[in-house]
Amino acid sequence: MSEAAIDTSGMKVTDEVVIEIQHMHKWYGEFHVLKNVNLTVNRGERIVICGPSGSGKSTMIRCINRLEEHQQGHILVDGIELTNDLKNIDAIRREVGMVFQHFNLFPHLTVLENCTLAPIWVRQTPKKDAEEQAMHFLSKVKIPDQAHKYPGQLSGGQQQRVAIARSLCMNPRIMLFDEPTSALDPEMISEVLDTMIELAQEGMTMLCVTHEMGFARKVANRVIFMDGGEIIEQNEPEEFFTNPQSERTKLFLSQIL
Ligand code: ADP
Ligand code: MG
C-alpha cells in the first residue's frame, strides 16, 4: 500500500441503507456459527471485519450474497430480502460483487474471457461490448497488457487484480472482500490494496475481511471485531485501535499489531 496520505474526499457515506442484517443466526449442522448478527451498512461505507480465525467472518459475508444460507433473522440488500426465492437471490447477486482469498479464476480461460464470461452468459451483453468493458476494468487495475494470458501465467497480485476487474464487469454497487491479500507474497499485497483504495475513493461500498490493519486505519470508516460468531464491538478506526472496549478485542489486537 502506498505510504502517501490517501485522498479521502471521494469516500462519502450517505444516509441510504444498502445492507440490513437483523438478528441473523446460522448453524452448520449442530454448530451455531453466527449468533444474532445485527449490522446496517450505508451507501459509501468501507467496513473492515477482523477477528480470530474461525470467528465466522467468512460465513457472515458469504451469507450476504447467499453463498451460505442463514436460518434465522433477516438480510436485506437494497431493500430486497434474501429468501429462498431465486428471483431475489438473483437480484441481490446483481448488486454484490465478491473477491476471495484464492482468486477463484477459471484456469482454462484467458484473463479477458474470465472477465467477459458472466456479462456474456448471465447478462447477455454482446461480446464486443463485454470485451470493451473488460478492457476498461483491466486498465483500471493496471493490467490491460495481460488480457490474453491465462491466470497461471500471472503473479498472485495480478491474478487478484483480475478477480477484482472481473467482479467490476458486473457493475456491482457493493463489493465483498474475503481476505483478498492473505494468499499473496508480501511484495504483492500493496498492489491489491492500492486497487481497493481506488475503489473506495470512487465511493464503492465495501465490506472487507482483512488483517491489513494499515488499510483499516487509512480507508475504513468502521472496523468490526467478531469472535465466536458474534459481533463483539465496532467503532471508527482511530477509536477502535486506540481504545478497544472488550477484553477479547484487546487480546486480538495485542496479537496482530
Ligand atoms: P473465519 O472466516 O472467521 O475464519 P469461518 O466463517 O470460515 O471463520 O468459519 C467459522 C466456523 O465455522 C469455523 O469453526 C469453521 O470451522 C466452521 N465452518 C466453516 N465452514 C463450514 C462448513 N461448510 N461446514 C461446517 N463448518 C464450517
Ligand atoms: Mg475466513
Automatic annotation (TrEMBL):
GO terms for molecular function: ABC-type amino acid transporter activity; ATP binding; ATP hydrolysis activity. Belongs to the ABC transporter superfamily. Keywords: ATP-binding, Nucleotide-binding, Transport. InterPro entries: AAA+_ATPase, ABC_ATPase_HisP-typ, ABC_transporter-like_ATP-bd, ABC_transporter-like_CS, MetN_ABC_transporter-like, P-loop_NTPase. The lineage of its organism: Bacteria, Pseudomonadati, Pseudomonadota, Alphaproteobacteria, Rhodospirillales. Residues 19-253 form the ABC transporter domain. The keyword Protease does not apply. This is Amino acid ABC transporter ATP-binding protein. It comes from Pacificispira spongiicola.
